[in-house]
Write a structure and sequence with these properties.
The structure is a homodimer of 189-residue chains. Chain A has 189 residues and is an alpha+beta fold. In chain A, 38% of the residues lie in helices and 16% in strands. In chain A, strand 1 (78-81) and strand 2 (89-92) form a beta hairpin. The structure holds a DNA duplex (25 and 25 nucleotides).
Chain lengths: 189, 189
DNA sequence: TTAGTTGCAAACTCTTTGCACGAGG
DNA sequence: CCTCGTGCAAAGAGTTTGCAACTAA
């Protein structure tokens, strides 16, 4: 989280970009951008963004959040994230490439900006395919250190793949693993 | 696309996995898995999966498609893809890591299985963060060769970022770029 | 026999949109 | 002023779920 003056200044920069693209600088856009900047790293979704923005300006509606988020995305000033939760998360795009590690067990997201080397590598892969990279977030899924420790020494072929609560809604409701005692999904060997 | 005998054999393997996990081998699951296997590379969504499966067994309902897809995902036999289209696409997981290149301009997806080297690289990144990778699809977004050619020589700072039709529904409906003649979004410099 | 599965339709959740009003330039 | 932008409420789209009937084991 940055200092307030810095954020205020950044907000104005984003608004300036919006203005110079021919759009209007409105109070709502200012508040939403400010909220986005103050919550970098939190990856809020539309609902959270709304609630936080409403603390500054209670009149803001959800439609405006979606419209602002879309505007920013169109101008490529925003990264969208999708963790298969059934909704999107948003983050101001401040660099060209982000890499997130998403734990399928506990749902935690550790994210750090891609260092030059990683970015270069991915760019090279893209080039091989004739692609030109756009600023974005790369989601890499796995099991985090904590969860690995908690799971203990399990053979690769039976590594636990079940999404535990916290991963979002997908993967937790249909068939439960059969049998009374079992509580986890295992990979077939 | 593989030969029929091979697919039939694969279907049985998947069903066997399901059975050995304690679930039942049903006609519907057989048909859906077969459809998934026959459409590898197409990344069908739930609706498309339903339509194609219904050609074999018209009684199949959309709920069963979703439930089967969730079962397979829970067993980590399926990769989910999210291209910000408003729905998910599915693909049988046959390898540990896939890398897709998604063109933000035309919406095309070129995907090739990660070769050993790429997989190793990503795994190393994960290891640095204490992560253990799970089978998955990595979506890398950019602009494909064709679209780049079409766009011509545009400076990096003004590179076109607008999602053209075909990218899905996000990013195409709210504010249009202002002014009568302009049809594209440009990045602020 | 019996617990897991299915199809249907209703319910849900997130996102988008039509419209009349309001506000930036 | 004249558009563009906003809030509201309704509409849409994809996904999930309750339930009675069905079926694999």
């Amino acid at each position: 989280m940055e200092k307030h003056e810095d954020i205020d200044q950044l907000v104005e920069q984003y608004l300036e970009a919006i203005k110079s693209a021919g759009f209007r600088m409105t109070t709502q856009r200012r508040v939403i951008i400010e909220t986005l900047l103050k919550n970098m790293g939190d990856h809020p979704n539309a609902q959270e963004l709304l609630e936080r923005a409403q603390k500054v300006d209670p009149s803001i509606g959800i439609a405006t959040v979606y419209r602002t988020v879309e505007l920013l995305n169109n101008m490529d000033l925003l990264n969208l994230t999708n963790l298969q939760e059934g909704f999107r998360r948003y983050e101001i795009a401040d660099e060209n490439l982000h890499i997130h590690f998403y734990c399928r067990c506990c749902g935690s997201v550790s994210h750090f900006s891609a260092d030059r080397e990683k970015e270069k590598t991915v760019r090279e892969w893209a080039r091989e395919a004739g692609f030109r990279l756009m600023p974005q977030v790369l989601e890499i899924q796995g099991v985090c250190e904590n969860c690995q420790a908690e799971l203990g020494d399990i053979p690769e072929e039976e590594y636990i793949l079940r999404c535990a609560p916290g991963c979002g809604r997908f993967g937790r409701r249909v068939s439960q693993p059969p049998g009374r005692g079992r509580r986890r999904w295992f990979r077939n060997s």
